Backbone:
């Protein structure tokens, strides 16, 4: 006879045996217990209140899980951010850049009153000239103490001064530039909007105040003179100021003294000094500061000894030891003609030359 939990015929073949195994698949987990509508009072509650054995539980509040709530919140934040970015994005449209001014240049030859002094003793020549206390090379172009301005940081002011110094060193102290061969070292420091004017100046030099190579850099006619000393004497100043909220300006004023001898001459030939006073005005916007480039807007040069009768547009043709200036001067200038600058020439003071 079967047990109380078994059918009269016994346990079917293949079925789990015993009453305990019949409900083994039923799992009363926590969620199942919480979902029950009836809840049994505790023994203490039944004794104290004489309450019935069970009580009906209030229906559960079906709401979003914590993960779902967080997901909905994130979607709402992302949607709101997208709307805000579309209406008012943080990237301001850059203001239109001001057009770059073309370089305005003036080169004034200074003619000596007599013979150009010279000697084979280079050190003696320096010591008896106004350049005796000048520094040599890039040391003569020191950076001044810099301070931030209303709209530019210390680093930006230093960047402007450093770029101006680099331009001065490359354009007036580099022997490869001075001998008339190298121009690229100077060109790469210019704002791209000035490159067309720069290239045209060297391709088609013109004495129009805009396209003279000697307005961009210092170079001597290699068929006329060569450097007797690669250490050029220099003295001058650099000064940075803020032009407006988007522009820095740097003014450079330096005097350079070069020791020259005739081209192809030996070491025994007399050496003379050539003096060049150069004032440059640079301008920098924020792109120039970031790219280490400059806008050269003014170049004013006085140089001698030179002959006023010779053209100093493409190369400087210095007068060397023992030479005198040729008679005559620049051709007459028509003030009614456009496109040509008024020719200028000065006299090189005797005190500006070495006493030999």
Residues:
């Amino acid at each position: 006879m079967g047990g109380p939990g078994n059918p009269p015929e016994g346990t079917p073949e293949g079925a789990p045996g015993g009453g305990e195994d019949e409900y083994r698949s039923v799992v009363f987990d926590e969620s199942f217990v919480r979902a029950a509508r009836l809840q049994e009072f505790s023994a203490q509650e039944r004794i104290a209140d004489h309450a019935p054995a069970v009580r009906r539980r209030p229906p559960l509040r079906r709401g979003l899980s914590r993960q779902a709530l967080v997901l909905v919140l994130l979607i709402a934040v992302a949607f709101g951010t997208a709307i805000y970015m579309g209406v008012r994005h943080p990237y301001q449209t850059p203001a239109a850049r001001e057009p770059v001014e073309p370089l305005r240049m003036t080169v004034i030859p200074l003619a000596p009153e007599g013979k150009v002094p010279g000697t084979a003793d280079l050190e003696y020549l320096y010591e008896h000239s106004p350049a005796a206390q000048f520094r040599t090379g890039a040391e003569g172009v020191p950076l001044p103490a810099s301070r931030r301005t209303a709209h530019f940081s210390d680093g930006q002011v230093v960047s402007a001064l450093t770029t101006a110094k680099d331009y001065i060193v490359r354009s007036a102290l580099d022997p490869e530039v001075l001998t008339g061969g190298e121009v690229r070292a100077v060109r790469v420091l210019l704002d791209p909007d000035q490159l067309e004017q720069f290239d045209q100046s060297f391709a088609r030099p013109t004495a129009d105040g805009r396209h003279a190579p000697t307005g961009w850099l210092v170079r001597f006619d290699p068929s006329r003179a060569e450097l007797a000393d690669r250490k050029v004497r220099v003295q001058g100043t650099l000064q940075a100021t803020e032009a407006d909220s988007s522009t820095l300006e740097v003014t450079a004023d330096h005097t350079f003294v070069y020791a020259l001898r005739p081209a192809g001459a030996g070491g025994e030939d007399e050496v003379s000094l050539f003096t060049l006073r150069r004032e440059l005005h640079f301008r920098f916007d924020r792109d120039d500061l970031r790219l280490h480039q400059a806008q050269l807007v003014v170049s004013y040069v006085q140089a001698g000894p030179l002959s006023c009768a010779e053209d100093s547009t493409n190369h400087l043709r210095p007068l060397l030891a023992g030479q005198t200036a040729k008679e005559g001067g620049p051709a007459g200038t028509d003030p009614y003609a456009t496109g040509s600058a008024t020719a200028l020439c000065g006299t090189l003071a005797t005190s500006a030359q070495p006493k030999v």
Summary: DSSP finds eleven helices and ten strands in the chain. The longest strand covers residues 247-262. Residues 89-94, 331-342 have pLDDT under 50 and may be disordered. Residues 66-87 form the longest helix (22 residues).
